């Protein structure tokens, strides 16, 4: 979490102000529930809401003495609430506060990331429709394969981020549980009603089984999902980087006036956004295994997970938030060059239609093996020396025995490859 | 995937026989659909079903020449089907076969792992109910905290694996898609009807957008979920390892007659199953990041994912299958020592009731700070020098000013800590 | 890199002030070399040293416009240097500055970490000698095995960190190279002499082959070594956590007066330092794979590595620095309880001598198999029901046929197990 | 470790035959040393060497009963050696055998990998010299930067693998230690002389401090180094993949006669070897973190590391061995297209000389800022609309005020960029 890759809204979730605000709400709602149960006086709960205040600096000061953050907070809170403060935190442990707070923070972070995904989905959809029929070469192994459209490319990324969104919704809901169950989760000193009350007030579900802590497989799943989303972002970024490379140049990241590509080479226009996204994906993936290592705590809990979460909680969510926003901007402003796409398509002299010819030859009665050899023979000729694939085929004795030039010519036709674009768009976007 | 950690049922999924069987079904069902569409003759489709055969060794032989596995399979198939074989694989690419096959295999593996989880869940539930009221000390940071029950411990692991099951069902469904869309996913040479037909026959859903390959975020999510499950297994294993250590000895893995703990020290009884599970968890987690790195393929696809999947597909599922079965056996036969649990509970002279005393003192009007100091003062005395916590408290001037010995004594009571066991069992198992 | 786990000296390496200071030195030394070569005027080089200044805020301001940090720095520098500034950065690229700067920073960080290791080694050595002869039980699989000494335990960790130090020295030297080779590393616009001059001035070696960037396998190796060191720290931390658990209590982290172990349970004394180290180790390990993914840049370079390094450069070094310092303090102040060690040793009624008896029986002519069975039979009796292993053996018909009670008794002797402590200390510390 | 990615020589190291052979040698050499010390009779040691035999199937059979591999081996060995067998393994633990054996295996594997690296280095060097002066465009960010030579590209990879070799030699030596120190490493039941003797016979160094096991940071470092080497392989593979892509086509993997690129598209020639290497690198990297997690064993040892090593020991070394051999073959047979390199170089109309013009303008008195703007202005024109960069510059009023066309023309010259090739080759290869 460094300023360069941080947006304020996500950063705020992890700032002390937000954390202490959530801590306060947990404690104050718990007091309400305890008062309802008659465990503490009603006026004590009211006093907490009325006089409850805290100061980040003062908490830090007390923590330096007590070496315990929740006790420091409660001490500072007591300085404002006064005598009734002794009813605060009754029967609770620090983890009741800390883990429920983390659940709220991850829920807030999850909500923001879902918003980010919605932004990216909207951008991808708009550009996909814009280029629904912009023909371009599809490549497997980096080698020209058959035509597709640029809109189809973007639709594929849209589908990936729609899956990402569904996974994130599930992971957010899984991590958003409230535990107020006491020292080892037995509710010995606190009634389960308190937990239910606080959960409802904070928009969380009740953790069915906690052991002082909320079980960490929930968090591991959350960070794993962020890692998968980051990987889908990398996939999008790698596509853009390829399209922008000098020999391809079918699309380019928007270049701001005043921007300098290179201090040394004034002609450079580099895909720095998508390269950056590639790196950010590595970072977010790097947090997945530590989050999984956090699951195996000793007995009812140990605190080894805490330092990991203090770092990856902010780092993973802030970095992914930044990356999603950056990807959205990149897609929104992406400069697309349909004429370069056409030029690259034409560059292989019609080779991209080789499969269609192959199929036609087998349909016309040639064995698959012989058809393959005939097509490959002529294809390799074009690949190595250029020229027109159609012309070569039409001059090949074995080929024309089965299909005439007049039958071959109409096979070299883009529309053949784009005839199902509507079908796929309908599948991806739920509309044509 | 080494024999020592392999069970035959899961291994079979990854053997050539199963793979070629699936390939054949994909091709044969595709022929049916093509025949329906009139693209190939009906009798050709029938011939494939009737005469379709293959031999693993022959395929290997052909592959050594062609260096292409699907072509080798088709060539061998053609040797049996004869002339009609030229209608097989029409308009399809190898990936249509390979990726759909992988989807079937991962679905089969997922089904088996779900069965494994059901077995583990059943074992955990049975033992949890058996020890629902077996009191034992709960520990945080490895330090005695407050009493809980052994049944509650197991219930927590049950809840974790119930979550694991839900995640795995989702991940399995996500990865079980069928793609038969041609060279770059445009259906240029094959009608989407074929895909729909094959999907339905194989129990898969249709991949809405493929690009020769099924997008790899689906697979990354699948392997990530396996990594989280492995981490939950490690959590269970670490618990058993702790319980079995000499100073604790509250539970032990079953020791077979004839088993030797150590070649050098005949007295040793080691928790080797749970230690082994700890290692297997590391292995399964190690496959998560490679699976995520597989997502960012170049353009419509490259084949870098393939070698990764050839290894982690079998390795991750076989290892997790073995680990789940081992964990199930370990839990089923776990030897539990309630009397040791009681002895360990008693060992701290009543310190485990410190929180209850603290709360009572604040209820009786002492400030939280002073109550904490009074309780801690006496607790540290017991911790260092042994003795009865109750006796010390009853001799503490500050304490007895607020609570008499007669009021203190009933606070040292296990039932206080187990009163909500039913509540938690109801939450976890949906029944009391 | 969060304040809680950050020490100022390491943090300073990564602050803008240090970075810009290094940038300036690279540029100014390069000017000297260029002036020597006659490429730029001598007075220009002098002017840079004399008038060279910069302001972090001003650089930030310019960067917001140019979106390029090195250009922003050079522009700000030029504002101070004036007309001669046009001779600065001649023939260089940003990466010449950035990569050489990173090399200096990692060297500085490496130096600091080596100092940290020296501190930890000194603490381990002092405590190892202090407890050279403090007998304690050695445990394999968490099960009592045979006696060892607490000094030997610490000596093992000393040896691990001595290895860590050697690896870090090698990794630091490997990463400390200087590249000033121009746009794609061909020295087209800058003479290799400049690189050699700057390298010598900054205490770096010359990078033999750069491609605008210094190859990233050097950095990957550096971060991998940090990951291995962090794992050795975890090993030490896990040992302390085990020793402090309630049932063992052979050692304890120092507990500050005023420190609170638990807000709810005043009796708790938790091994929070070593638990924290366990978590920090996970974090540092999490940076290893991203650093390795950084190696495969596109062609002569892409900038995907940059965001990764901006985060893990500081995070990995700051976190490991903090962890090493924390471990050192933990070891220095560790409270050791030799009497508990003795008590735990005695707890198994002499079982820890089982191997010696086994060997004596085979020496006395019993087959290994029968000796094993005899020893195991009596050992299991003690394990389950307590009692004296010696008494049981002496009452075993098969045993006493080969060895009498009078021969057995002296085998139950600690000195037998500590006779080679000097040998091992000499190997580890190079002295007795 | 699957047949497809396995070479027999490396696989053999991990087969039972080799393992049992090493076990036998450890035991037999240990007997010699014990006999020298007078601990066992000389004839017993001789009997072991003379009659020592074992059968893999018989060992498996016994292990199914005892569930302990070393005991099973010793039992089988005793069946052949007879009565003297009771002197075998005296004072040793299974780990003395297992860990020393693993050290031998990793040393053997390391030796083989070093051989592989030597093969790759030789291939890279040969091709580097072959194309020392083959001019090609250097690319940063995928964008044409400045000319370099194809030999220089390969020289960079040579330098990376030379570093890899040095790291591997160090890691192999670090992991090649012998421990025969008994149950917890105290030599209670065995004299250190035995360890020294066996170490010398097996070409290992003595482990200064073992605790039944050899410390796992040694192994972690070994596997980390394999991960870094795999990443360097990926770097090489990514370069080849880029060069082979249709729009670049500057180099191609050798295509066997009879090889089929695609079952559907007969024109395809895919860089499948380098794509495969990319995937294999992910796999090898995936083993690094598990190896690091193995370091933190409980107390003197637990056995969690064992299952990890049983899998990653073979998998990592076999996969990397295969990958290095594949890379060597790929480089040896790589088809290089210098004329395509020249064509691509020319494609940008001279833009690649932009930095030289920039420098010349500043040398001629233009401010750096103005020079940058002038060069960028004309460069962007060429980038977008093609044409000759030289012509545009020569028509730019601001430019020609400082440099005439006659002065500009000679700046468009390849030799300027290759003048230091000898220097770099000398640095990398130690010769010109």
Main attributes of the structure:
Ribonucleotide Reductase Protein R1, domain 1; Adenylosuccinate lyase (chains A, B, C, D); Fumarase C, Chain B, domain 1; homotetramer; elongated; 5% strand; two-stranded antiparallel ribbon; 432 residues; L-Aspartase-like (chains A, B, C, D); 6 strands; Fumarate_lyase_fam (chains A, B, C, D); Fumarase C, Chain A, domain 2; 20 helices; EC 4.3.2.2 (chains A, B, C, D); 3 domains; two-stranded parallel ribbon; mainly alpha
Secondary-structure map with pairings?
The structure is a homotetramer of 432-residue chains.
Chain A: H1 8-13, H2 16-36, H3 42-51, H4 56-66, H5 69-81, H6 94-130, E1 135-140, E2 143-149, H7 150-175, E3 177-178, H8 192-202, E4 205-206, H9 217-244, E5 251-252, H10 272-286, H11 288-293, H12 304-333, E6 335-336, H13 338-346, H14 354-363, H15 368-385, H16 389-394, H17 397-402, H18 405-408, H19 415-418, H20 421-429
Parallel strand pairs in A: 3-4
Antiparallel strand pairs in A: 1-2, 5-6
- How much of the sequence lies in strands of chain A comes to under 5%
| Strand arrangement, major sheet of chain A | 1-2
Distance between the termini of chain A: 41 Å
State the low-pLDDT regions of chain A, or none.
Answer: none
Beta strand count of chain A: 6
- Based on helices, strands and strand pairing, what is the structural class of chain A? mainly alpha
Number of domains of chain A: 3
Oligomer: homotetramer
- Largest pleated sheet of chain A: 2 strands, antiparallel
CATH domain fold name of the largest domain in chain A? Fumarase C, Chain A, domain 2
Helix content of chain A: 55-70%
Please give the CATH class of the largest domain in chain A: Mainly Alpha
Count of individual helical segments of chain A: 20
Shape of chain A: elongated
C-alpha-based Rg of chain A, rounded: 30 Å
CATH superfamily of the largest domain in chain A: Fumarase/aspartase (Central domain)
Strand-and-helix sequence of chain A, N→C? HHHHHHEEHEHEHEHHHEHHHHHHHH
Keywords (chains A, B, C, D): Lyase, Purine biosynthesis
Organism (chains A, B, C, D): Azospirillum oleiclasticum
Protein name (chains A, B, C, D): Adenylosuccinate lyase
GO molecular function (chains A, B, C, D): lyase activity
């Amino acid at each position: 979490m460094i300023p360069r890759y941080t947006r304020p809204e996500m950063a705020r979730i992890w700032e002390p102000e937000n954390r202490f605000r959530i801590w306060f709400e947990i404690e104050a709602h718990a007091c309400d529930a305890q008062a309802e149960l008659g465990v503490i006086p009603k006026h004590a709960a009211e006093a907490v809401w009325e006089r409850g205040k805290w100061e980040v600096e003062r908490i830090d000061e007390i923590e330096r003495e007590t070496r315990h953050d929740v006790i420091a907070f409660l001490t500072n809170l007591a300085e404002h609430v006064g005598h009734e403060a002794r009813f605060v935190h009754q029967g609770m442990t620090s983890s009741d506060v800390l883990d429920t707070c983390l659940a709220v923070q991850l829920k807030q972070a999850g909500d923001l990331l879902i918003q980010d995904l919605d932004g990216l989905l909207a951008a991808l959809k708009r550009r996909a429709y814009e280029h629904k029929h912009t023909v371009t070469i599809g490549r497997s192994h980096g080698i020209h394969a058959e035509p597709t459209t640029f809109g189809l490319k973007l639709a594929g990324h849209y589908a990936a981020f729609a899956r990402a969104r569904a996974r994130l919704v599930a992971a957010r809901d899984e991590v958003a549980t409230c535990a107020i169950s006491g020292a080892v989760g037995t509710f010995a000193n606190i009634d389960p009603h308190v937990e239910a009350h606080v959960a409802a007030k904070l928009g969380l579900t009740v953790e069915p089984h906690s052991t002082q802590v909320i079980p960490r497989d929930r968090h591991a799943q959350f960070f794993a999902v962020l890692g998968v989303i980051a990987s889908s972002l990398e996939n999008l970024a790698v596509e853009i980087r390829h399209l922008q490379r000098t020999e391809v140049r079918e699309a380019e990241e928007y270049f701001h006036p005043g921007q300098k590509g290179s201090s040394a080479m004034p002609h450079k226009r580099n895909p720095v956004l998508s390269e950056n996204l590639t790196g950010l994906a590595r970072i977010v993936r790097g947090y997945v295994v530590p989050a999984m290592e956090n699951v195996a705590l000793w007995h009812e809990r140990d605190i080894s997970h805490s330092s990991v979460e203090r770092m990856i909680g902010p780092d993973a969510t802030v970095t992914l938030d930044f990356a999603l926003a950056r990807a959205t901007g990149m897609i929104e402003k992406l400069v697309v060059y349909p004429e370069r796409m056409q030029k690259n398509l034409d560059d292989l002299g019609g080779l991209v239609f080789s499969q269609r010819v192959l199929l036609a030859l087998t349909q016309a009665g040639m064995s698959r093996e012989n058809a393959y050899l005939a097509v490959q023979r002529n294809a390799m000729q074009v690949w190595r020396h250029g020229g027109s694939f159609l012309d070569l085929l039409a001059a090949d004795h074995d080929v024309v025995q089965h299909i005439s030039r007049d039958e071959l010519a109409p096979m070299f036709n883009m529309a053949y490859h784009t005839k199902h674009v509507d079908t796929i768009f309908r599948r991806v976007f739920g509309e044509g």
